Structure formats: C-alpha cells, structure tokens
C-alpha cells in the first residue's frame, strides 16, 4: 500500500504563505485611491468668478465681431443697410488689386528690416547694461523711456525733426543730400518709419535680453577667458547660443507687432507721399471710411490669418526652449 504523503512543515524562520501574501502591499489599490480622489476633486467656485466674466467679454468684444467680420467679407455690405451674398468676389479682387499687394509688400518689408535692427541694437544694449559699468540702473531707466511714450506723440515729434530740424541743420552745415525732408521722398520715406519704429521698440526687446543674459553663469565666461576666447568669440559661441530661445521669441513677436504698425505711419507720413508708405492697417481703416466695408473685411481676414500663422509658428518653435 502506498502511504499518503504529508506536506513538509515550513523551515524555521520562514514566514507562512498566508502571512506573506497578506504582508504584500496592495499597490494597485493604493495608487487608484489618490486618482479617484483627484477625479472627484471639485473646482473652487472662485475660479469661475474670474473665468466667466473674462470669457463673456472676450466672446462679445473679440470673438463675435471677428466671426461677424468674416461673414460680411462674403457679402457686398457697406457697413449698414441691405447686403447680398457675393461669395469669394472680395477675395478675388483683393489678390488682383495692385494697391493692396503693394501695401502688403511695404508692410512685410518694413517689418523685416525693423525686426533685424531692433534685435541687433537691443542685444548690444543689453550686453552693455549687464556689464560692470557705472550708473547701470540709471542708464536702463533712460533707455526704457521710449517704451512708455505714446506712439502717436513720438511720431509727431520725429515728423517735426525730419521736416524742419534736419533740413535746417543740413542747410547750415552745407549737406545738400539732407536739405530736403525724406518724408517728401517716396523712395526714402520708409526709412523714417523704420527708424522711429526701431527707436520705440528697442526697449522692450532689450528688457527680454537683459532677463536672458542674467541667467548665464559667470563661470562660463571665466572659463572661456582662461582658454583664450576673445569677447567676439564669447558673444558668438556662448552668449547667442545660450539665449537663442529668447532671440527667437523677440524676432517672432517683433515681426508680428511690426506688421500692424499704424500710429507711427499716420503721425509721420500719413501714408504718403502718395501711397508710398500705406500699410495694410492703413488700407483697412481708410476702406472703412470710404464704404468698402465688406472688401476690407476680406482684407482683415487675410491679415488675421497671416498673423495667426506667425503666432502658431512661434508657439511651435519656442515650446520648451525658453523659460521666463
């Protein structure tokens, strides 16, 4: 006969199977509990008191007028009264209008030249104002002043300078090239717009560059100096690469802002001489006054899409590269 086999008793000091299973932590249950608590966590009603009014104002003052403007761009409306649906007629006329295409070319060209000048000057000033110089705080305050002055006031002041002060000084000195105001020259008037826009926009870009430069450790420059690096090499191989994210933000934000320049052009040239300095924004506003409401709504829609693409491009390329 075969005798039944008996289970061997556990070795001395070994825990029992039941107690071992009971001692294992229930990680799944413990991990799920905080998750359920987070899911059940209610939003504080105070947040809605801040969110809802802002959302209502944004919808009524920005989103709804934008949607209505896009709708009227497909009509022949003059801004009031009856209208008829005309489809893409306004857009077809827009892309075949030489005056409008010239306005877009002028606006984009001025924006490109201005954004280059602004970032070069702002970066050089930021480097100088973060170095060990005397009266550094005072100089920063002085250079920031153009940013807090109204653009239309700046434009009128420089309009007087370009129209009276510079020609009078050139007459006294004997410089024939500057005796005539550049504001009256259709080939040179754009230079005044670039100079004045740059003068006003440099402080904002400079402040961003100062915030970027102070984040670079000083040990990096000390180590490069010991290796024999020149100041120019430090600028091109250390400073610019380490603040490249800030440079990108400044370039894209500046270009987007310069596309909508209006006050400075109105105060300086009024779009003249002739139509030499008429920007897209001036075309839109003047069209509203002349009854081209639907046509300028189509123009505004195209202009909005251009700025939207630039903004989306900025978000895409700057994501994760810059931390303010």
UniProtKB/TrEMBL annotation:
A GO biological process held by the record: transmembrane transport
Entry's localization field: Cell membrane
This protein's record includes keyword Nucleus: no
Transmembrane segments annotated in the record for this chain: 46-74, 103-129, 141-162, 188-214, 235-255, 293-315
Keywords assigned by UniProt, alphabetized: Cell membrane, Membrane, Transmembrane, Transmembrane helix, Transport
Cellular component, GO annotation: plasma membrane
PROSITE patterns in UniProt: ABC_TM1 (PS50928)
Ranges of biased composition (kind: Low complexity): 8-34
Signal sequence residues: none
Coiled coil (residue ranges): none
Domain ABC transmembrane type-1 span(s) in chain numbering: 104-314
Main location: membrane
Keyword Protein biosynthesis: no
Family: Belongs to the binding-protein-dependent transport system permease family.
Name of this protein: Sugar ABC transporter permease
Lineage start: Bacteria, Bacillati, Actinomycetota, Actinomycetes, Micrococcales
């Amino acid at each position: 006969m075969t005798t039944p086999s008996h289970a061997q008793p556990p070795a001395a000091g070994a825990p029992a199977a039941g107690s071992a299973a009971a001692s294992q932590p229930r990680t799944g249950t413990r991990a799920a509990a905080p998750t359920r608590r987070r899911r059940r966590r209610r939003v504080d009603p105070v947040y809605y008191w801040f969110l809802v009014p802002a959302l209502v104002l944004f919808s009524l003052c920005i989103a709804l007028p934008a949607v209505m403007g896009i709708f009227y761009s497909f009509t022949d409306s003059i801004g009031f009264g009856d209208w008829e649906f005309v489809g893409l007629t306004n857009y077809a006329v827009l892309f075949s209008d030489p005056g409008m295409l010239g306005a877009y070319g002028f606006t984009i060209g001025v924006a490109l030249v201005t954004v280059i000048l602004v970032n070069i000057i702002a970066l050089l000033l930021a480097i100088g104002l973060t170095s060990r110089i005397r009266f550094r705080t005072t100089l920063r305050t002085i250079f920031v002043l153009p940013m807090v002055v109204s653009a239309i006031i700046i434009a009128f002041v420089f309009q007087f300078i370009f129209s009276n002060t510079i020609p009078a000084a050139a007459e006294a000195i004997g410089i024939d090239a500057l005796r005539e105001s550049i504001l009256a020259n259709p080939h040179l008037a754009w230079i005044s717009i670039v100079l004045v826009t740059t003068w006003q926009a440099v402080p904002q870009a400079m402040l961003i560059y100062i915030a970027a430069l102070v984040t670079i450790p000083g040990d990096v420059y000390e180590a490069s100096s010991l290796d024999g690096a020149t100041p120019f090499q430090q600028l091109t191989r250390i400073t610019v690469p380490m603040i490249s994210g800030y440079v990108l933000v400044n370039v894209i934000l500046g270009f987007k802002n310069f596309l909508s320049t209006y006050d400075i052009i109105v105060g300086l040239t009024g779009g003249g001489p002739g139509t030499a300095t008429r920007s897209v924004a001036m075309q839109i506003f003047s069209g509203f006054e002349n009854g081209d409401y639907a046509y300028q709504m189509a123009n505004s829609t195209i202009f909005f899409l251009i700025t939207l693409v630039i903004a989306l491009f900025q978000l895409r390329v700057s994501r994760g590269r810059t931390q303010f």
